[in-house]
Hints:
The protein is mainly α. α1 runs antiparallel to α2, α1 packs antiparallel against α6 and α4 packs across α9. This is CAAX prenyl protease 2/Lysostaphin resistance protein A-like domain-containing protein.
Amino acid sequence: MVQAGQRWGFGAFLLVEAVFILSAVFITAAARTSGTDIGSSVSFVLIGSMVPTVLAAAVAVTITYVRGNGPFQDLRLAWDWADVKVGLKLGVFGLVLTYAAAVVWSKVVGDTNATSAISELVDGAGLPLAAAVVMFLYVCFLGPVCEEVIYRGLLWGAIERQRWSRWAAFVLTTLIFAASHLEPLRTSLLIVIAVPIGIARLITRRLTASVVAHVINNFLPGLTLLLVSIGVMPA
């Protein structure tokens, strides 16, 4: 449902995606120019993984203030305990679905490719405890919130502004969310991961449920990254 006073659409989403990509490129270029070993720099792991997504989400929120009614109204961030319950249920379902899909996917693609870009960075950097905890908090909480603001918040709202159906918004945001991670080998797996999260947004019509589902879905992977990075679990 389009909010009265909403004056942003696909252009806003494209701007946010440009901020995400350009900031990632800038950080990588700056690291290489300074001679930083990208594969083993703790600072690069943290900055390169977190800053582009957080910055893009901040721009998305700013757009809703400048061109709309603010994030709570435009991005449907209204709090409702019923939405939290829906998010929890779909998040747990998503964990089971993701595990099953990952098992199948790893057999098809191969174990050597069964890691995300972030997990590869963490494995290569050997993060100290403080950095590992920061990465855990980002993967489990901050990252999901930022991604939901961008995709099932700003992009979903832009699609609805075109008077397309909620199902169209669900399908497009799921596909674009998966593709935007820029991990071609894992795109099919990311689509599976995104489905329960998108369903949470679809059936509640608010962002809170999808944020909760996303947090739950990321918890075990985030915990695994933490334990691997501090040496409790083998890589």
